[in-house]
Design brief:
- By secondary structure, the protein is of the alpha/beta class.
- It has a 5-stranded antiparallel beta sheet with strand order 1-23-22-21-6, with no helix packed on it. A 5-stranded mixed beta sheet has the order 8-9-10-11-12. Strands 16-17-18-19-20 form a 5-stranded parallel beta sheet.
- Helix 2 (79-90) links the parallel strand 8 and strand 9.
- The relative contact order is 0.15.
- The structure holds zinc ion (ZN).
- Zinc ion binds at residues 60, 62, 188, 356, 359.
């Protein structure tokens, strides 16, 4: 349910540890005062002592891919049966999309495997990393690409241009995110096409969309053009399947700089980070520059990250969601530097948090819980010294969109209302962080109460 009236009063809320009534008028916090018990005539919500905190900002997400993932099969241990069912139900020739493939879950997947299970439908399956698609023979023929294995790297834009589009329910994604208390996101899709960015802008600037969106995109995009949403840093991907030269990377950094943009550089391996730092040494770091993921940071590089003033935007939940795979596959020398968090903060490096959904769970509270526990899904600790308090992890989701590693925003008079209402005092919620404590969200579309608070 969304309350669209001009004035809403949240009564008896815990704000910074004290009971307060908070009045929101035209999207701005206009009063924070001790409860009077007097009725005001405005729409009122009784928080009954639940905390009213700043809305969460997910500093790295992929909105269109998340909407597409909600329309897709998930590659899990029952994938073979699920794909057979989907093929039988969708009729010959209909495209089937699946996401989340990883060798550790289903074993090796290629064109021939897919042909054997679904010979009469074009099928495309995305690797969990987002870096590869596997297509069956019908799908390869339909897009006009030849490949013996069907495994295609870095061909997202070509595939998208040649595969019939489906209608994506971005409004549903907006509602889902608001249900987690998320009031803002930064979309880190490395799109090279301005029309893709404009399409996204169209979908998220409607009056009912509850979440503020910042976009990034490739360095050359005309980020000065007003499309109704803000441009953040330019996204640059250091591809591990095809490492760029330092000259290539420097050239991309310089294109961003010519457009006055900072850079957000995707680095998930030791060599990727080495290359990115070499490019930064050459071009110089700029306020707003960030490393996305920083999945592996050898300890000898911490000082340089700090000196350059780079911000790390991390995904705490991967320790849980992918940790067991890392334990099996990652070089022993890299395990200690994996998905660092606490040691980055201790080294004086700014850290912002994000989910990387759909490649991780879109629920930031899952990330907050994992940042504090650092357990894989089977319960094995990874880098226990990297644990941070759930309070700190929450704050890493409450920093401003333009400064992911900066201070948490506050619930204060005169501020634009981007708020999250919880069912209990904050200290109680953070004892076992979970989005089921979210009661409602005040975002760009007004106050929305969660549909099923008892989920
Ligand atoms: Zn990403």
């Amino acid at each position: 349910m969304t309350i669209v009236s001009d004035t809403v009063v949240v009564r008896n809320a815990e704000v910074s540890g004290e009971r307060m009534d908070v009045r929101i008028h035209d999207g701005t916090i206009v009063a924070i005062e001790p409860p009077t018990g007097r009725r005001t005539g405005a729409d009122e919500i009784d928080a009954a002592g639940g905390a009213l905190i700043c809305g969460l900002h997910d500093h790295h997400i992929h909105l269109m891919a998340l909407a597409a993932a909600r329309n897709s099969l998930v590659v899990d241990p029952t994938f073979e049966a699920d794909l057979r069912t989907a093929a039988a139900m969708s009729g010959t020739g209909t495209w089937i999309r699946a996401v989340g493939y990883h060798e550790s879950v289903t074993g090796h997947l290629d064109r021939h495997w897919l042909d054997a299970v679904a010979p009469e439908n074009p099928v495309r399956v995305q690797h969990r990393s987002g870096a590869m698609w596997v297509l069956n023979s019908l799908a390869l023929a339909a897009v006009g690409v030849e490949s013996t294995t069907g495994q295609l790297f870095g061909m997202d834009e070509l595939l998208r241009s040649r595969i019939p589009g489906t209608v994506l329910d971005l409004d549903g994604i907006g509602r889902e995110l608001a249900g987690y208390g998320v009031t803002g996101v930064t979309d880190l899709t490395p799109t090279t096409s301005m029309s893709d960015v404009e399409r996204l802008a169209d979908l998220v600037t409607g009056a009912g969309f509850p979440v503020d969106v910042m976009v990034t995109g490739a360095p050359h995009l005309p980020s000065h053009v007003d499309i109704g949403i803000a441009f953040g840093p330019a996204k640059i991907v250091v591809r591990d399947d095809e490492l760029p030269t330092i000259d290539d990377l420097v050239a991309s950094f310089l294109v961003a700089r010519r457009h006055g943009r900072s850079v957000a550089v995707h680095c998930v391996t030791r060599i990727g980070l080495v290359l990115a730092l070499a490019a930064w040494r050459e071009v110089g770091a700029k306020t707003g520059d960030r490393i996305e993921h920083a999945a592996v940071v050898p300890s000898e590089m911490l000082a340089e990250l700090r000196t350059m003033g780079l911000t790390v935007v991390t995904q705490p939940s991967f320790v849980c969601e992918r940790g067991d795979t890392y334990l099996a596959e990652v070089d022993a020398q890299d395990l200690d530097g994996l998905w660092r968090c606490g040691s980055l903060l201790n080294a004086g490096i700014s850290v912002g948090a994000s989910t990387d959904a759909p490649y991780g769970s879109a629920d930031p509270w899952h990330s907050i819980a994992t940042a504090a526990k650092r357990l894989t899904s089977s319960g094995v600790p990874i880098g226990p010294d990297e644990r941070i308090s759930p309070e700190r992890a929450l704050m890493m989701f409450q920093s401003d969109a333009t400064d992911p590693g900066g201070p948490a925003r506050s619930v204060a008079l005169g501020r634009v209302a981007r708020l999250c209402l919880l069912d209990s005092p904050l200290s109680e919620v953070l004892r076992a962080p979970s989005s089921r404590h979210v009661v409602g969200t005040v975002g760009r579309a007004g106050f929305s109460l969660r549909a099923e608070p008892e989920r």
